[in-house]
Design a protein that fits this description.
2 copies of one chain form a homodimer. Chain A is mainly alpha-helical and 121 residues long. Helix content of chain A is 59%, strand content 7%. In chain A, helix 1 crosses helix 3, helix 1 crosses helix 4 (80-103) and helix 2 (38-45) packs across helix 3 (49-61). The interface between A and B is medium-sized, with 29 and 29 residues. Chain A binds a DNA duplex (30 and 30 nucleotides) through helix 3.
Chain lengths: 121, 121
DNA sequence: GTAACTGTATTAATACGGTTAGTACAGTTA
DNA sequence: TAACTGTACTAACCGTATTAATACAGTTAC
């Protein structure tokens, strides 16, 4: 469910939080689904429990999960808003990158060809 | 020519190097054009000369500039390859972001609308 | 109730990297 | 010669990621 890219220079807790964000947006992590416990994920990944704790706290701060003391951490019940938000942000990213490509001389037909490659002719 | 975004968490020397990369790709920085001296840019931006030196070294390592001891740092003479390379990378970025958007449920018509917004109907 | 889980909080120590500071040396130019 | 230029080097400071070691409280199953 989670993994660590040691080549990635971003902090471990950010990697984990980002993965949760993406997997919720993709529907891989489903509403109410329990996450691994702090200690089990800690031993599984071979990192300190404090780092997991910080990742889980960040997930909860972003509204991705809810933390219930004594029980565990769970994916939030309403992932719909998160998915829509993530999709809107991705649209904005695409728009920004398209504008950058245009500035570099990329033509509309260049872009349309890229779209065809992704979506099929 | 260069500026520092203190809110940007990326290192100053990376910010400067990225700006050089972008401005060369956009044709703002022209082949052979001299860059500010290490010490003058240092005082202008209010940061340490060592940081500028590191940024300039990184630029040279990327082939963006050439450093001539006693004279200064200059934009490389052949910026064409750099521009083409930058444009190819930007195409790859757009393709990647498009694929991500598709995974999130973005339809082809959604994307085509974005393209129209950027390039005009 | 006890044991074994769960999350939470706190403090200290370590490690790494970015940045600053200061100095010194060598090439270039007027 | 003087005033630029880039380069090299060391030491120190600081913020942050990470580890380490505890301690406390809620939950669950026996």
């Amino acid at each position: 469910m989670f993994f660590i890219n040691s080549r990635d220079k971003t902090p471990i807790y950010e990697q984990l939080c980002r993965q949760a964000r993406e997997q919720i947006a993709l529907g891989v992590l489903k509403p109410g689904e329990p996450l691994p416990s702090v200690r089990s994920l800690s031993t599984e990944l071979g990192i300190n429990p404090n780092t997991i704790q910080r990742a889980y706290r960040m997930m909860e701060d972003e509204g991705l999960t809810v933390s219930i003391p004594g029980k565990g951490n769970f994916v939030t019940e309403d992932t719909d808003a998160l998915q829509q938000d993530h999709r809107a942000k991705q649209c904005e990213t695409v728009r920004r990158e398209l504008a950058a490509l245009k500035k570099l001389g990329g033509t509309k037909s260049d872009v349309l060809q890229l779209v065809d490659e992704v979506y099929g002719g």
